[in-house]
Amino acid sequence: MSVDPDHPHVHGNNHDHGQEPPSPTALRVKALESLLVEKGLVDPAALDAIVDYYENKVGPRNGARVVARAWTDPRYKARLLADATTAIAELFYSGAQGEHMVAVENTSTVHNMIVCTLCSCYPWPVLGLPPNWYKSAAYRSRAVIEPRAVLREFGLDLPASVEVRVWDSTAEVRYLVVPERPAGTENMNEEQLAELVTRDAMVGTARVHVP
Q: Which fold would CATH assign to domain 24-203?
């Protein structure tokens, strides 16, 4: 079903998310970070740069390889759409926050978008750290109420003929968008294709473009 601003309906939102408390490890890391900054031993800007590196470059590479494999191997794509958890594990990407994965495919007539309305559930094994905008209250609420407007703010203006489906992640189920393979990539190999796939395309707030 599509999400209509006047009749919002979100896939997967019939689970109780609850509030996921920070893990003991996360609490220790935060405390250590605060102490190191307070003692002047760590530059906050350097920490931000490291987080950005893992958030935007290292983490999403796993998901990009999954997408590239799906684009080049129809049998793998079929397995991914049927049982994403198992198919992703074939490439050795699994773990906490990614135990139960569902892959949804973008086409010329359907565009998928991921959100977590009650907290910030996110598929860490394939996308790395969630960006700040994904965790923001504005995105979490507006992605459901006015998804097309949100997508336009990301630079993605979809025609009315394209159905928009919003998938609400939960503590039990996380989603991965398999974006459309762009035209002009027929002669690219899997590694080259993976370089084109961005984190935002796998969340559904962007399309994949050829430079």
A: Nitrile Hydratase; Chain A (3.90.330)
